[in-house]
Amino acid sequence: MRHVIGQAAAWQSSGIRFAMATVVRTWGSAPHGPGASMLVSEDGRIVGSVSGGCVEAAVCAIAEGVLAGAAPAVERWGVADDDAFAAGLTCGGTIEVLIREVGREVPLGRIAAGLAAGVPVALVTPVDGGGGLAIGGEKATGTLGDPGADRAAALAAEGMLSRAATGLVTSENADGGGAECAPGRLLLVQSFAPRPQLLIFGAAEFARPLAGIGAVLGHRVTVCDARPAFAVAERFPGADEVVTDRPDRWFRAHEDRVDAATAVCVLTHDDRFDVPVLALALRSRAGYVGAMGSRRTHADRLERLREAGASEGDLARLDSPIGLDLGGRGPEETAVSIMAGIIAARRGGSGLPLAGLAGSVHRS
Fold this sequence. Notes:
The longest helix is centred in the last third of the chain and has 18 residues. This protein is α/β, with parallel strands linked by helices. The protein is built from 11 helices and 16 strands. Helix 1 crosses helix 3, helix 6 crosses helix 11 and helix 7 packs parallel to helix 8.
């Protein structure tokens, strides 16, 4: 979605007309969640996806109609066993998609600037017509047509943005539905939170592919090592920053940046560095904390962490030996197993083969 918004802002700035299709609700095994978007320009270019290819042709046809003057549309696609070749989702889920033209009045530039600056922002657009509002920071930008509607939209969207949620809300949810706030209008709120952080402590060879994969998956990557010979920026082209510092000292100085979306990976294999930073990370708000090492190393590390004051609750958060059992070897395959473990922890996945599980493939 970040790439789609950047392209949309560029087209808007260049005066290119386009329609945007956005997933607003899903049921069952939908391939993409709310917020997934696709652009269709007036000259036939397509950017993004709402279903991974299942219904894109149907979406394009509706988008072309919208660009030709049709009203915005909310369409629903799914598939039944006896309708597998119709325009629908072969994965078996159902999606609801809003398709509308995005005019020059929609403040896409503000959204793109917020993304670039790492500031949480949300784009609010009405399902029934034009206009748009960007919220986040001190002041809203754009309009839905009148100040009352803008106030209602901003209030409704603030709750969504605080949860980094995307979906439909009605403006009466904003403040009880006072008439002066244009109650009852259906709004699409698209929230854009800052990139999740991946903090890698220990600039060993295993850290190099991990930084690259983390960057590809949308993380803001920091690599930190106390050894100048290892903390060399050229070794980590995917990292946003490569720092020479003691891991615990760096962590303590930047702990205000750590939140529930932060993943901490300790790869140094040296208790002088591992234990102090792990003790801090396990008490922090970080959503994931993992450390590399054998089972013997892990058992020894637990004792050292207890001596450093870590509680049993803290220790229960530690993923060590780090990563999922993929049977891999070498830095690259190990990095895949580590990132797979982070994704499973963040999304609530089991880490088991999908072929052996029942129920929906895609979590709602």
